[in-house]
Fold this sequence. Notes:
Radius of gyration: 20 Å
Order of helices and strands: HHHHHHHHHHHHHHHHHHH
Number of strands: 0
Structural class: mainly alpha
CATH class of the domain at 1-116: Mainly Alpha
CATH superfamily of the domain at 1-116: Tetratricopeptide repeat domain
Shape: globular
Number of helices: 19
Amino acid sequence: MSDATRALTRSRLDIALPLAQFYIARARATADLRFLGYAEELLAPWQAHPPVAVRVLQATILQSRHQFSASLAQLDRALQESPGDPQAWLTRATVLRVLGRYDEALDSCRNLGIRADAAIATLCTQSLQGLSGHLRTAYAAILALPSPSLPPEARAWRYSELGEMAERLGLDAAAEHWLREGLQVAPDDLYLRAACADLYLRQGRARESLRLLAGYESMEPMLLRIAIAHRQLRDGTGFAAAAQLSSAFDVEQQRGDVVHRREQARLYLDIDASPRAAVAAALANWAVQREPDDLLILLRSARAAHDEQAAWPVRQFLRRHGLEDARLAAYLGAAP
């Protein structure tokens, strides 16, 4: 960024906001958290008396850093000042969903529905219904949405939800179809790419996973999946990737970062074959976020470590919310 542009961002919010949004998008597309720092730098001059739009973007940055309580605090302040802000309601629903606070997230979706496009509100609401004991009906509701009428970002979201729901229903072929469709719309969507790679790895399709991840070796979540694929193939070429990951996670832990705890648990379990270390990392991750993949890694680690007590939080969570996920079934019996 030139000095002239930087000077403008300090006095022109209409310039600072889209640039900050661009950097946040780059952080998501590259998994490079430095871009979040660039966005924060752009918003810093507006922090003394932040407009609502600045608060919402700051909340998004905090969400990306997995600082969820701080993110919610920013969103609550934004909504006190502007109760009709749809982006604030949508971001709040997203954060609460990650935390497993589905009832509160649904309230945010309902508030969003009063103010936003009906299809976006449906995606928001049904994605949560699908985690709360209504998986089949939620899947059908999202399937019924007319995809061509949605903007590209919402279409990618729809495909992502359909892929995730199909996998939890045990419909792996449908899940692959939807995730691939999503990548056609949004090839830079790291979540869609990682989810598709995970589906292949679970099915033992390591070579297809490697083809899908080619060119993404610089991103730690993708590098993890590449290392797991090489381990599945027993080709002896994943050691450098595993060592690089281990070093990166050690640095994160020293800094107190919690962004990649789930991936760290998978490294311990699927590459290092250290289930007790995996349990510790999965429990640390569980203290921060509670998405279906967080349940899965904790159950898998507890089973591998013969530590049934570690799986207890997941069992309680499933009973409370009625969450359905075919991937969990193999790990929910009595520990061997």
